[in-house]
Design a protein that fits this description.
CATH class of the largest domain: Alpha Beta
Number of helices: 15
Strand order of the largest sheet: 1-2-3
Largest sheet: 3 strands, parallel
Shape: globular
């Protein structure tokens, strides 16, 4: 890739679908890590708002995508992503990505897409049956286009996205072998160090935290909303009386304490676990302690988000500038891809 910064820095690509405000699962699974990555001068971080990918299952509700685009951008800035250190951009504003996707589609079989466990799980969760939108079915190829367009070496994602990274690596190998080139770069996934945070369960304890399942705590939630949600969290259904021994396994309150507690909290968390298991500690007391820990983490984010929300025009300028910068990078990769394929006819 041309340009000194592209050859001397490790390129990192990450992003989110704009289908609503971001929640704690996004925060511990990827957002916190992105802030650390942007602070490393050895990295060049690109952060994508994947609106085209969101349209694969929300094509009939584009207004939701449009509104959510600004919600996601606000969440990015609130957690500490800095446009001076990271390039924030919008997927649909870079048409070269769709062209790359088309070329990669010819290298991936339908059978291979059917075997992608992440896609299979999401199809089941959404209840598509035999009516899966084509765009949704092939979105792993679109993701590969996004990653390889920037020649990303590192991709911070949750553990549930490992199959997507592997499929991208397969496409890279297939392309480079087919066209006898080394244009594309095999990425590596960066996964959460905290295993408990890798797939944060929802408040109901039944599945991962999800915008569509309405079982999450959002970064934009005010203190009152947070309190209501924490107090409604799933615990041990057999822990009826305070004096009853309780289970901490699959108890969402203790799971969240493990994820969000800091080193200085460990001693108290461990004592509460032992007390709860022996009996004599009520759910309300544990939930109040969790509420303190979550408010400690989220209050600074709330304040920054409110500040940025006062000027949506500035958000537009940030995204427009970032999209223009990102497009220049992708255009260079696309040119190299077409040259390798022998279809850059008029260059």
């Amino acid at each position: 890739m041309k340009g000194n910064y592209m050859t001397t820095k490790e390129i990192v690509l990450t992003g989110d679908r704009p289908t609503g405000k971001l929640h704690l699962g996004h925060y511990v699974g990827s957002l916190k890590n992105r802030v650390h990555l942007q602070a490393n001068s050895q990295n060049k971080l690109f952060v994508m708002i994947a609106d085209q990918q969101a349209l694969t299952d929300h094509a009939k509700d584009p207004e939701k995508i449009r509104k959510s685009l600004y919600d996601v951008a606000l969440d990015y800035l609130a957690v500490g992503l800095d446009p001076k250190l990271a390039t924030l951009f919008v997927q649909s504003q870079i048409p070269e990505l769709a062209e790359l996707t088309m070329y990669y589609m010819n290298l991936v079989s339908i059978a291979r897409l059917h075997r992608n466990p992440t896609v299979k799980t999401e199809i089941e969760q959404k209840g598509y049956g035999g009516s899966v939108p084509t765009g949704f079915f092939v979105y792993p190829i679109s993701q590969a286009s996004d990653i390889t367009a920037f020649k990303a070496m590192k991709v911070p994602v949750g553990n549930d996205q490992k199959p997507m990274i592997e499929q991208t690596r397969e496409i890279v190998r297939s392309f480079n072998y087919t066209y006898q080139t080394n244009v594309l770069v095999e990425p590596k996934g960066l996964y959460p160090d905290n295993e408990a945070a890798g797939r944060l369960p929802g408040l109901d304890g039944n599945t991962k935290m999800s915008k569509s399942l309405n079982n999450g705590i959002f970064l934009a939630d005010d203190a009152n909303t947070l309190q209501k949600k924490v107090m409604s969290m799933y615990t041990d259904p057999n822990h009826v009386r305070v004096e009853d021994p309780g289970q901490i396994e699959e108890n969402m309150v203790f799971h969240y304490l493990d994820v969000f507690g800091r080193a200085e909290d460990f001693k108290q968390i461990q004592a509460m676990k032992e007390h709860y298991q022996h009996g004599g500690l009520g759910d309300v007391k544990v939930k109040r302690y969790l509420l303190e820990i979550l408010n400690r983490e989220l209050e600074p984010i709330r304040k920054k988000r409110e500040m940025y929300a006062q000027d949506l025009g500035e958000i537009t300028r940030i995204l427009k500038k970032g999209s223009k910068q990102a497009q220049a990078v992708v255009a260079q990769t696309l040119s190299e891809v077409k040259t390798a394929m022998g279809i850059n006819y008029f260059s």
